[in-house]
Amino acid sequence: MYATEHDIATLRKLQEVDRKVVSAKKEFKELPHRKAILEVRAKKDEVLKRKVQVQDMLDEAEGKLAAFVQEDELLSAKQDEITETLSQVQGDYRAVTAHTRDLDGVRKRREKVSLELSRVEEEVDKINPVMKQIMQALADLDAKERDLIASFQKVGGSLRAAIEEGEKARVSLAEQVDGELLKVYEKTRSACGGVALSEAHEGACSACRNTFDSSRMSKIRSQAPLATCPVCRRLLIVEGE
């Protein structure tokens, strides 16, 4: 296949650029940051679900606590009121008996409320540390996610820049190659895993490593400076063979 020295030199540069771009794209795709970020976000979702559950428990317990505190305040006020009334009805047996009975009922209710208050306070005291742990876990996961994203942007940004630079260089180099030859190169690159060029070296293809007998080498030389490997079908640069 006919090709000038400039064509071959340019194709070599083009292939090197293509290799670097493919390598950078592969490295970008395989960056561990993406998987790590998704794992952190999945963990955050789990912790957030747990937070909602614990927050519901805490809200319920604090609601009960507030209700019991309010009831105790009302009972305390009622107890003071009855005690004041008792001091004013001394000598009235029926009134004293009735108010004493009311006062006893209020005291008993306050005792029950006091027990419930203690129970609910213990419940709140147990839930609060759990919520604190959850909030700390979320803060830690947020920090980890930020670090991973920053690292991904740094490493990924460098790779994206390399890809963009390579693709620009590719356009420039492609413009320097004969149009028909470029079509053959592109077709071969697509069919051969991204590597279109090989070299005939010591009677073998430098890409697939297959050796050629004298008959095949004679045919390959006749196609110089650019032949086709009879095995892997890559473009075979023939120089000094």
Describe the structure.
The chain folds into two domains: 5-10 and 178-237, no CATH class; 31-174, Helix Hairpins (Orthogonal Bundle), CATH 1.10.287. It has five helices and four strands. It has helices spanning 5-29, 32-88, 93-174, 179-191, 214-222, and strands at residues 197-201, 204-205, 226-228, 235-237. Strands 2-1-4-3 form a four-stranded mixed sheet. Strand 1 and strand 2 (204-205) form a beta hairpin. The longest helix is centred in the middle third of the chain and has 82 residues, at 93-174.
Give me the strand/helix succession.
HHHHEEHEE
| Count of helical stretches | 5
Global structural class: mainly alpha
| Order of strands, widest sheet | 2-1-4-3
Helix content: over 70%
Strand residues, percent: 5-15%
CATH hierarchy class name of the largest domain:
Mainly Alpha
Distance between the termini: 15 Å
Extract low-pLDDT stretches.
none
Total count of domains: 2
